[in-house]
Design goal:
Blueprint lengths: L2 E7 L3 E8 L4 E8 L8 H17 L4 E6 L3 E2 L4 E2 L10 E2 L1 H8 L3 E5 H14 L6 E6 L3 E7 L2 E2 L31 H5 L1 H13 L16 H9 L3 H26 L3 E5 L1 H4 L2 H11 L10 E4 L6 H11 L3 H14 L1
Parallel strand pairs: 1-4, 4-8, 9-12, 12-13
Antiparallel strand pairs: 1-2, 2-3, 5-6, 6-7, 9-10, 10-11
Helix pairs in contact: 1-2, 2-11, 3-10, 5-7, 6-7, 7-9
Bound molecules: zinc ion.
Length: about 325
């Protein structure tokens, strides 16, 4: 059996797994950032994992990384990322130097788009967009069967689409009215607190709205709490629907695949609102909108997919790293 290593460098978790040639995860670990994390922490975790699984399984066919952006693909680094505890990560250089293998690196959501495409959808379609709604919001697009990358690897920083130009909600990047600044997992709780500040909540009800996690707000929503209903519908789901429609209008995909814990944990709620409202914002033919097939593993599977079948542009960068860092 051919085995690959896929790495999903997120803002909250670093997931690393061994994946077979069909997209099945054989083994996986999930790290959080240690307190003393620095720009080499992630590459060190990847190097030790690779050595560990080479001992355990024998030959590994390739290594792919899907990472939070923004990226500088020329150097193989993450530069000034807004939501993770460490802002800059040096990835390609230490890995190539230590393991002496090619490194295939793209944005995490771009990798996920590639994984969904080559393992699931390719037989039937040529245009696919993947959107993650998690700690951050990101996307990846395949247009006419080509994976789009951009000049530095940042072709779809879709989380920073302005979905509310009157916006009072500020994004982690500093911008106003950005989709990610409104609806991402890292903002939902603080935005809810801000929202509730403008409501007259009776004192005896105040404890009900002391919220620490996004899931608690969705729980209130399911209990038909009027404030949670208004916040989730009018702030979170409306901005997500506008964002998804904007992405559809730009790329004209046959399918939009949605992943990320915020959306997938509440997919019934997201799916219903989007289905009921997206036509208001669309100019292109309505795409199918589905949840990822790979759940929490989508980033790992997508990263491994880069090594299973390497897109031309990704291969070019991996060759550049070999020349520069080996
Ligand atoms: Zn932003």
């Amino acid at each position: 059996m051919e085995l690959y290593v896929g790495v999903d460098v997120g803002a909250t978790y670093i997931r690393i797994g061994v994946v077979d040639g069909k997209g099945e995860v054989i083994y996986r670990v999930k790290h959080t950032y240690p307190l003393n994390a620095n720009e080499y922490t992630v590459s060190s975790l990847i190097i030790s994992f690779y050595k560990e699984v080479t001992n355990k399984y024998g030959k590994i066919q390739g290594l792919g990384i899907g990472a939070i952006g923004p990226l500088d693909l020329g150097s193989g680094n993450i530069v000034n990322t807004p939501n993770a505890p460490v802002k800059n990560h040096i990835l390609a250089k230490p890995i190539v130097n230590s393991l002496k293998i090619p490194v295939y690196l793209v944005n995490d959501a771009v990798a996920s788009a590639w994984g969904e495409y080559i393992f699931f959808y390719r037989k039937n379609i040529e245009n696919l967009v993947y959107i993650t709604i998690s700690s951050g919001i990101g996307g990846g697009a395949i247009v006419d069967s080509n994976l789009l990358i951009g000049k530095d690897g940042n072709a779809h920083e879709i989380g920073h689409i302005v979905v509310d130009y009157t916006g009072q909600y500020r994004c982690g990047c500093g911008g106003l009215g950005h989709w990610e600044g409104i609806a991402s997992g890292s903002r939902i709780v603080s935005n809810f607190n801000r929202f509730i500040h403008g409501k007259k909540v009776p004192k005896q009800m105040a404890d009900r709205y002391k919220i620490k996690m996004p899931e608690e707000i969705f729980k209130l929503y399911r209990e038909n709490d009027p404030i949670a209903l208004e916040f989730i519908d009018n702030v979170i789901l409306r901005s997500c629907t506008a964002g998804i429609a904007s992405v559809a209008n730009v790329y004209d995909p046959e399918i939009i695949v949605v992943g990320g814990s915020v959306a997938t944990s509440n997919w019934d709620i997201f799916k219903k609102y989007i289905d009921d409202n997206i036509d208001k914002y669309l100019i292109v033919g309505r795409p199918k909108i589905e949840k990822t097939h790979f759940g929490d593993n989508v980033g790992v599977v997508g990263a491994a997919a880069l090594a299973v079948e390497t897109p031309v542009k990704v291969k070019k960068y991996s060759e550049l790293y070999m020349r520069r860092y080996l």
